[in-house]
Structure formats: structure tokens, C-alpha cells
Amino acid sequence: MKNLKLLFCEETELPTDVIWFTIDNETSKFFVAYSKQIIGYNSKDYKKCLHVNLSEAISYDKPIEIVGLQYMYGEEQLCIALRHGDVVLCNVVSGECECVGSVDCELLSMSWSPFQDIVIFVTNRGSVVVMTHDFDPITELELSAEGFGEGKFVNVGWGSKETQFQGSAGKYVSGKERKHEATDAIHDDNQVKIAWRGDGQYFAIGNVEQGKRRFRVWNQECDLQYTSEDMAGLESPFTWKPSGSLIASTQRKAHRHDVVFFELNGLQHGEFTLPFDTQQVNVKKLEWNSDSSVLMMIGTDVKSKQDYLQLWTVSNYHWALKQNLIYDEKIAYTSWDPEETLLLHVITKPGKYYRYKWATCIYDSSISHSIADDVKSTESSYIGVIDGTKVKLTPFYVMVVPPPMCAFQVHLNEFVNEVSFLQSPTTTNEMCALTTGGNLFCFSSIPEKSDCDDKVQVMAAGGNGFSSQIKPYNFSLQYTIDKTSDRFDWRTIHNLLWTSTDQIVATAAITGSNRDCIVTFLLKKGTEEMSIEKVFEVDGHIVGTCVGVNSGNTPEVIVQLNNGNVLKYNISQCETTPLLDSNDTPILLNDIYHKMVYCSFTCGSSTTFGLLALSTQRRLLLNNKIISNECTSFAIHDEYIIFTTSTHKLICFSRNQDVASIENHFDRSSYTQSGCHITEIVRSVDRGASLVTVTPSEHKVILQHPRGNLEVIYPRALVISVVKKYLNSAKYLCAFQLMRKHRINMNLFYDHNPEKFYSDIPHFIEDLNSADYLNLFLSDLHNDDVTVTMYNQHYPAKHKLPTPLFSAKVHKVDKICDAVLAYLKNADKKFFLSVLTAHVRKDKRETQKALELVKVAQDDHSMEDNQIHDALKYLHVLVDGRVLYQEALATYDLDLALTVVQMSHNDPKEYVPFLNKLKGMEEDFRKYTIDMYLKKYHRALINISKSSDHFSDCLGLIKTQNLYGEALKLFGQHTSQHREISLSYAEYLIAKHLYEEAGIILARSENHKKAIKCFTVSCNWQLAFASAIALQYPEKEYKELARTLANNLIDKRRFFDAAMILEQEVKDIEAAITILCKGHLWSSACRLIQIQKSELLLNSHLIPALLETASEVSSTLTASKEQFERHCMRIFKVREIKEERRQRNLLAGEGEGDLDSDIASDFGSTVTGSSLSSVNSRTSQRTAKSRRKQERKRFSLREGSRFEEQGLLQALGEIIKAFASMDDDVHSLIIHLSLFHMDQDAHSLQHLYKVTHDLYSQLITKIWIPPNQDVNEHGPHSTVNSIIANRIGNFNENLTHAELEIAIPPKLNSKPKCSMDLYFASTN
């Protein structure tokens, strides 16, 4: 689908009769040779840089004639071969010449290998001399070497050649001598031709032997490999494809003139026919460009003596003529540039030097959508392909036809060089073709005219018998370019832009100057004249153009100059201004960008424009910003910019942004991508695939592979963009068909715009008008929002919305199903299956309701039997057959269940006996049996409770399924069943050790005797006494019960309740005071003593208990204080050793290392790696509880252990926590010691407590190191672990749960409660 377009043509005058040409790309110079002299020029300004006259530089007594010229790369020398046999090296800087070798015969030509390591000289004795780079002889080869070569074919016994099928040769009788077409020696120059393969491993030599031309292939070691087969009419043009696959030559046959191709083994492999008569043109030269993509042919017309230069390309094994140039003067030399693949050098006999720069392009009518989005897509999808005198056209919006085929083709009587489509914002239904002769043929797609004229031929359907579904172009008018102007050369017209129906803008080379001009042609209908309206000269060469628009939506021309400047040409005012980017900076391109598109970008209601440009170096620019450095092609869609990369990716990014945002997104200097919401959607493509076109307003992307075959893909971004348009315009049927075709999730209907779709559900159902479509939609629903999950790239605006901390559960499916059911309530019966689907697809399936609907329809005969059958069959698709059978049973309709299960293909032995057994049961018991089968025990309990004859089954169900609560509600409070269930419930609670609840259940059923036992065990003494009173217990049993309850309460350390029972129920005051003293309830004990007014109880019970408790507390405080001091001294010592070790490591340059293990090695042995692994293997088998316990225990207090410091911290923390918990008890003890004048004991206890408290308070900040005040512990990157680790200073951030517990310092009240002022002064 690619064509060749001319970027620019440079022309300069050289001396006449140039015979050789060579180029130096390193220094941008070229050299031409005449018969005796060599001249060098600078390629930029064409100034002379070298002039050498060989007759003066080297004295010869023989006439000098140059037969070969080659620039030696990296040596700044020219290698010159002279006819008399000398080889001369000429320095291109100094001009000095030196003869470096000579042969004893005349030289006819010279050929260097691609890497210039071997040179071949052809002599007049019929031999070739092969030398090294330093001109050391390798060998001399005879052109008429005998034998086929080392690659001679092997005969495996399949018969002789005469017995094999040979195509048209098979028409001759076997054994009869065949007549070969005689070679016309007039058309052969009888020269020896040499061709090298691109890698330099092989070379071929073609010559004439016995009136026939053939060639031989030699390897780099000069061993003959192959000899070509005899072919009549083979001519002298000879070239080897650089990629190494084919050797090209020409063959003149009786009825056509072909370019033929040969494989390495000399056998023919394809051909194509030149567009001339057999005797019309003599082919002088064939040459491939450096990347083997274009084949150049040079020929001379026998009659007119004009020279033709043709450029051919191949796609899908079809050769197409892309460019045809005609020269009135003879071509002296042509050559492709060795580095730039599409740069061509042409020198004519009169001395004109042409430098053509070509580029590949695709003539696409849809390019107008880059600036105007309202063009009809059916009129903007044509691709034009030039093929000699034909233009092949295919509307890819309608059909995809692989090349070389097409939908229809336009036949002209001249060779076509360029094609342009009308690029108007209103229409694109016209095309024009510029021919070699300067004629412009215009074609239009006329809706009223359905038949084609004689210039248009429909190809896609194979001709007759098919009705065309497209409106092909028809010939409209023919215009002739005004060739009388001397301001520019009409032959160099290129960059054709059809801006309006009566105006064409093109570029051309100014005559006699290395500058170009912009020419505006006026198309005058009726006169068929293409008159020149305006000519605007620019400073330099124009290498690219495209159509743009100004603020008034008037077409303008964007012009790219070879110096990188980009100008905007106002056609009406005939003036140029620099094209600016979004920052009002002139756009400057640092390379030749062969494809440019002026593209619009829409953000809200504002529209901005930007220039997209692609260079041959695969750099894609948007204004001055690099979009990609590996772009191979790009195309414009209504909503996306699409491009392919050399890494085989297809990337789309949206046009629904302003240009400034996209530029900032791709700004490599600042790389501010994080601040923009530009989403790039990427998918993989086949290797080497490039874009041909994108159908505007649609979702079809056409790719072409390197061989030429086409592939149609539907990128998800484009498909969803079209779906969005359909959904926004409520075209639900179009959206559904597209989504079903491309497997788009149906949830997008709702998630795209939930409010709009929910309100449009009636219209949605009416638009689909199909139960199958509606069922497919309902079956695909789920509660996730696909615009934030699978299609989040296509909804970037939702990324900006804040994510709620707590989001309510979405019931989207239920909401849609309820709306569908509400609409279909009175709808046609054709949506009956949709109603079933809506019930079944809810979050909580309503399968039973669906079955009930089927049953109702069956009973009232509103549907046919086959429809009922189809409905049940459909339900089997939505719901598993076993589940559906169970739901049918849940309706208690055995006939329905039987009908459902018969369609599930289950074995009748599995369900028939069971259903028959159910039919013979009483109704309630049958329902109970069904519920038990379905494991619906609550419903089974309700049904069985209605059958008084089966209470034993009911009680069994209650016990097995623990349905006591529901059962108690079903049976009356004073019934025997209620009492029996209550007793069973109590036994169940007692088994679970829930004695208090069991006692309540027993008390409710008036079983107080057992209730008392339960209340006694649960220590609920109030309810126990209530049940005892209800049973009217005798006084003796009542007191025994009271003492039992008191003992149980004492065991649970509920001393106050036990004392109250003894005081109030048993009337044992002394026992009550004893219990209160045991529980340190001093105030309550004092109250009872005061009530009794007994000094004896005070001295015998309370005071001794106070003194004993004071002594115990003092001992405890003293012991904990001593232990605390020991641990403090040890932890300070451990930290001191660690600091010394750290300082030594830092001084030694070893880093801090593992200080814990160093401390362990200083104090004792540590756990080895093997033992640690064995410990880990054992601990991995422990339970979670035991692992936590083991984790707490691993902080050993053993001196020298690895975690000694953590163990000390844990022990110190536990001491302080225990001390803090004693505050209330000590405070109460001191108060009552003081109350009974035991001041010395109270003072001693308070003093000891205060000293201990001060010690702990003073050392807490030294033990638990405070945070580093210079560190921001609450920064944005802080975590809970990092804050705690910063506060404790010496711990790593990755702390375990046990480490976190010991890392937090314990809390200690700054002012303890036990500080009576009475003893405070004496304490100080």
C-alpha cells in the first residue's frame, strides 16, 4: 500500500561528459571523473574541493582513460583504474596521485566489494584479476571457466530433463530439437558485468559466450559455485539484491520485455514485465537501493531517444512502478546513495546533476479527519496505490482487499507519479492523479452515477455477476499544467495538496537555483486549464507539506524546509509565518520528517492544534516534543493518535486533551508525566507491522506486514470509543452488537453512565427488542464497576475522583434486575425467558420464584407446552440441574419437581422412588421430609411442629440441629412439649458449661430444684435464693445453701459478695469480717465492727490483718526494688559494651556489623546456624498461642545471650507495671494503718513506696531512650514501626509484636495516691 513521493530535488551544473561518479558520505562530498580529470564537490554548496588532471599529476606516454573510480572509506583516497592497466590512488585532500599497481593488459572495468576488502579488475583478455585491499593478487579467473561449479545439482534418478514437466516447453515433442530464440546482439553491449552480494561473500560475473549471455557465481575465496542456466534473450543489465536473495537482469522475449530474477544457484525465480513493447526500450542499468526496497531501471527509448528512470517496488510478490522520470538528455551516470536508502544521484551527459530525495508514503483520504471531525467516514477511507499507469483504490471502511488486488482501479494513458485526495473540511469524495507528462486527471464519486466509465475498472468482485456495494470514482476532468513558466521546472512538481475544489497547492524547484517555491494552481472547469495563480519562493528546499487550518477554519499549508524551519503558508495572502507550539515557540525540526499531519485536539469546548511529524529515524514529534523514538508509522483517529513502534507495539493516546497537556506529558527534559492524566493504551502487533489507515469514526485499523499482506485489527481503545458514542446517543442496539462482536463486558452499559442508563432501561429493552440480547446482557452482569477495573485506561477521568474510605456495598445487579422486572411485568410473552433470567441473576438467586412463574404459566395455559419445556431447559442452562431440582422440591410441588428432574438427564432410579415415597406421606410430614432432604432445618422444624404425632422426630431435630430457641417459640409455654424442650435445652447448656443460662431456662419451666444447682455453680446467688424461696426451703437447708454459695464466691475472690451472704443470710458476722480482711476490704470490715461495737473483733481480726498485710507489701516492694537496681546496672553495662564495639568497628572501617552477636560472643556461646534451624523446624510445628509464648520467652536474662538487652527491658517493664498496679491497695492500707494509730508502720510503708516510685521515675528515661529530637519522626513517610523505633533509638524498624511491647516505656503516675501529708514531713 506504500508509494514513493519526492521530498526534494536539487539540481546543479557540472562539466559535460561525466563518466564516473563516487560519493564520500563522511565529509558530504562527491567526485566525478571525466576522460582524464577528476573533480570533487561539496554536497552542501556544490563548491569545488578537488581538481586533479591525471595527465599532469602522473606522466604517461600513453593516452589516459579512466575506466573505474571508487572512494576508499576511511582513507580519504580515490582508487582510479586506467585503461592501459595502471591503478592509481589519489589523495582527496592534497590531490597527490600515486600508482600502486599495474597489469600487463588493458583494464575494462573495476569493482570493489561492499566492505572494500577485495577488488576485481576485468581485462581485455577475457579474464578477471582479483586483488586484496592492498592490491596483492589473489587469483586470475577465466570468464569462460568450464564446469558448473561446486554447487552442481545431483541427479537422483528421477529421469532426464526431457521427461519432466517444463511448462510451455512441454508443448514440444520429446526428443525433438527445440528452437531457441536467438539473442539480439544489437541490444547487448557485450560488456562484462560484476555484481556483489550485500555481505561480500559472493560475487557474480556476467558475460557473453557464443552469442549467449550467462553469469557465474564465485565465493570470496574465488571458487566457482554456480553457473546460470541458458536463457534466450538475457541482456547485460545485472545487479545483486543487497539483502542477498535475488540477482536481477532483463530478458527480451518475442512478446514482452521482462526483468527476471535468479537465485544464488543460477535458476530463475520470478519476473515482471516492463510497461513497454518488446523493441521499444533498451535497458541500460538495473540497481537496487541499499535496503533492497526499490529497484531502479534506466532505459532508452529507441524512437524518441529519451531516457527513462523508473523506480519499482514489490509487495505480495507483485512489482509496481511507483515513479517514472523522463529525460530529454542522455543519462550519463546514476547511483543510489550508499547510506541514505532513498537518495538518488543522477548525472546527464550535458552535465546536469540531480539529487533526488524520496520517501515512502500512503495516499489516504481519511487524513482530513486530523483537522475536521465532521467528514462522513464512508467518504474518507480510500487508499490509493500507484502502479504504473494505474491507480488502485480500496475503500477500507467498506471492504479490505489485500494488495496487489483492489476494489477498483483507474486506468490512464500516462505514468502516474503522485496522487492527492481533496482535503476539504466538508468533503473528501474527489481524487486527482498527476502524470509524468504534466497532466492532472480528476475523479469524483458521484452518487447519482452508479456505472463506471472506461477509465475505471471494478476489481474486487472479479468482474461480472456481482452487484457493487461501493460507489467507485468516475473520471471528471483532465487538466494540463502550464509549462510556459520559467520560474520553476514543471517536471519537479511534487507535494500535491488539493485544498479546495478549484485550487491545488504544490511545490517545485526554482529554475537555475537550489531553492523551491510554493505554486498555487487554479482549476478552471470548462477550459481544462491548470493555470498558475501564485508562486511563492522560499529560502531552501521544501521537504514536506500538509494541510492545516487557521482561526477562521480556512485551509493553510504547513511547509517544512530542509533547514528544519516549519512555516505556515497563507494561500490567500501569499505569505508565510513560523508555526508555533503551545508555548508560542517556533517549531524546529532537526531532521527530515517525511510525514506531517496538522492535528486538532479537543478539550471540552476548546480546540487546539499541533503538528505531528515522523522522520526516517523513527522519531515521532508533537510540535517540539518527542512522542516516541521508535515509531514506525502513525495514523489519526477521531479520538486517538495511533502509532506503531519498532518493538512491535501499537500505542494509542487520546486527542481529547489540549496540546499543552500532551506536550508536558511527553516532555523528556522535565519528565512531568506524574502531573498529567494522559493514558497510553498499548497492545502487541506482529513483527514489522505498520499502519496503513484507520477508518475515521470507527474502530478498524489496517496493518501491513513486511511481505505486503494486510491485517485488520480492532484495538480495544477504538472499539470502546465507538461504544461510548453509541451509549451517549442512546443507540443501545448498535452498542450491543458491537460489544457482543468484540466481547466487551456488558456491564459497561450501566457503568458508563449509571443514572442515564437506569432511567433509559425501558428504551434499552425496546431498542434491543430481543429476548436473546436481553438475556445475554443480564447474564453478564456483576457488581464490579468495569470503568475502574478492566476498562480503567479508557476512563482516566475516574482516576481523579477521590477514593472513599468506606464504600457501601453496591447492589448493581439487583437494581438492574428489579428495573427490568418492573418493565417486563406487563410485557409480551416473548420476554418470558428474560423475566426468568432477571430472577435468577440477582445476588440472592430467586430460583424458586422463577419456577413458580413457570408453574403458573403451565397451570393457566398461558403458554404452550413446548414453551414451558424451553423455559425449563433454559433454566437448566442458568442454574445447575441439581440445584434447580432442589429448588423445585422446595416449592413442595412434586409434579414440578418431577418435570424439572426429568430434564436434568439424571438416572430415574435416583429420584423416582423418593418422589413416590413423598406422595404417600401426610402433607406436613411430607414437607418436613423434603426440608430435611434439602437441609432446610428451620423450615423442617416449622412443618414437623404442626404434626402432633411426630413429636419424637421433632425433638430429635431440635437436639441434632440445636434449634431450641425456635422450638420454644413454636410450642405453648405451659405445654408438656415446651417443658420437655426446656429440659433438653438446659442439659445442652450445662454440657457447654453455660450454667447461668441453663438455670434461667430451668427456672422458666418451674424446675427450680435443678435451677438452684446451676445458679450455685455459676455463683448467681440472688437467683439461687429466689429459686429456693420459690421452693420454700427450710431454714437449715437455706443456710447450707448460703454457706455453699459463700464458699464458691470466695474461690472466685468475690469477697464482698461472700461477706454479704454470711452477714445477711447466715448472720455470721465474725466469718464475714474474716472474709473482708482476707480480701483487704478494710472499710467494709470497719463498718461491720462498728455496727457490732466489738473491740474484741477489732483486736482479733482487723488489726492483725493490717499489720500482716503491711509487712507483706513492704517485703514485696523491697524485693522488687533490689531486682530493679540489678537489672538497671546490667543493662547499662550491656549498652556500654555495645558502644565500645561499635566505635572499634567504625575505626576499623568494618561498619557497625551485628552488635548483638558480638556481645554474645564476648559473654558466652551463642546459638549456631544449624541449631537455630533445628529450633526453627521445631517451633514451626507449634500452635499460634505457643509461638507467641515462646516469642516472649526468647528474651533471655542469661548474661551474654543474644537478646539479653531485650530481656532486661522486658523484666524492668514488668516490675514497673506491677508497682503501678499496687497504688490503690497501698493507699487504702496506709489510710487504715493511720486510722488505728499505727503511724510507724504507715510511715515506713509510705516512705518505702515513695523512694521506690522516685527511683523508677528517674530511671525510666534512661532505660527507655527518648527520641532523637533532630529527626522528623512524624513525616509523610513514617510508619508506626519507624516512630516507635525512633523513640527507643536502639531498635530496628522491622519489630515483632513482642519487641513492640518491650519497646514502649511503661506508664507510671507522676504523683502516687499513697502520700498522706501526715507522714510527708517526716519522710522528707
Topology of helices and strands:
Blueprint: E1 3-13, E2 20-24, E3 29-33, E4 37-42, E5 48-53, H1 54-57, E6 66-72, E7 77-82, E8 86-91, E9 97-102, E10 107-112, E11 118-123, E12 127-132, E13 137-142, E14 193-196, E15 202-209, E16 212-219, E17 224-227, E18 234-240, E19 247-252, E20 257-262, E21 268-273, E22 281-288, E23 295-301, E24 307-315, E25 318-327, E26 331-336, E27 343-348, E28 352-361, E29 363-364, E30 382-387, E31 390-395, E32 408-411, E33 416-421, E34 430-435, E35 439-444, E36 456-458, E37 474-481, E38 494-500, E39 503-509, E40 516-524, E41 529-537, E42 542-549, E43 555-561, E44 566-570, E45 575-578, E46 593-603, E47 606-615, E48 620-622, E49 625-628, E50 631-636, E51 640-645, E52 649-654, H2 659-665, E53 680-684, E54 690-694, E55 701-704, E56 710-713, H3 716-728, H4 732-741, H5 748-752, H6 754-759, H7 761-768, H8 771-779, H9 812-823, H10 832-840, H11 847-859, H12 865-878, H13 881-890, H14 894-902, H15 908-919, H16 923-934, H17 937-945, H18 951-961, H19 964-970, H20 976-991, H21 995-1004, H22 1008-1017, H23 1021-1030, H24 1035-1051, ...
Helix pairs in contact: 3-4, 8-10, 10-11, 10-12, 11-12, 13-14, 14-15, 16-17, 17-18, 18-20, 20-21, 21-22, 22-23, 24-25, 25-26, 26-27, 26-28, 27-28, 28-29, 28-32, 28-33, 28-34, 32-36, 33-34, 34-37
